[in-house]
Amino acid sequence: QNQLSGNLLRKFKNSNGWQKLWVVFTNFCMFFYKSHQDNHPLASLPLLGYSLTIPSESENIHKDHVFKLHFKSHVYYFRAESEYTFER
Question: What CATH number is given to the structural domain containing 36?
Answer without folding.
Answer: 2.30.29.30
